[in-house]
Amino acid sequence: MPKFIIRRDLPGATEAEVDAAALRALACVAEMDNRVVWLRSYWDRVAGHVRCVYEAASEAEIREHAELARIPCDEVHEVTELGPGDYLDEATAQVFSTAQ
User: Fold this and answer.
1) What pLDDT digit, counting tens, does each position of 12-49 carry?
2) Which CATH number belongs to the domain containing residue 51 in this structure?
3) CB 26 within 8 Å of CB 39
4) How far apart are CA 76 and CA 30, in angstroms?
5) Which of 18, 24, 47, 98 could connect to 69 by a Cys-Cys bridge, CB 3.0–4.6 Å?
6) 22 burial level (CB within 10 Å; 0-12, 13-18, 19+)
């Protein structure tokens, strides 16, 4: 299933308000028959926004979820997940282990 990064602008939000939004988001995942999957979020208190990582079939489902949960959905971008394991195989792992 495609992954999406969502920016939610929440300037001045309190911890209680972010917690309430998270609980609404969880409830709406179930209401949507798990057509979206919330993987994790990162709250930048200083900048006043939350970045969320979701799986869904489409951007439209991400936006539908945000509307149902009554949470902002200021930007949505489909992304490709990359991690160290995507670049390491036996040969490269051996190079890294001998370099240390």
Assistant:
1) 999 999 999 999 999 999 899 989 999 999 999 999 99
2) 3.30.70.3090
3) no
4) 21
5) 24
6) middle
Q: What's the domain range around 40?
A: 3-99
The whole-angstrom separation of Cα 39 and Cα 29 is 11
Diameter over CA atoms, the chain: 53
pTM, to two decimals = 0.83
- Which residue blocks in the chain are alpha helix, DSSP H? 15-31, 59-69, 90-99
Q: Which residues contact 54 (CB under 8 A, 6 or more apart)?
A: 3, 4, 6, 36, 37, 38, 39, 62, 65
Give residue-wise pLDDT tens across range 39-84: 999 999 999 999 999 999 999 999 999 999 999 999 999 999 998 8
Number of folded domains in the chain? 1
Contact 53, 4 (CB under 8 A): yes
Question: What tokens does 72 get?
Answer: 């902002």
The pair of structure tokens assigned to 65 is 């979820």
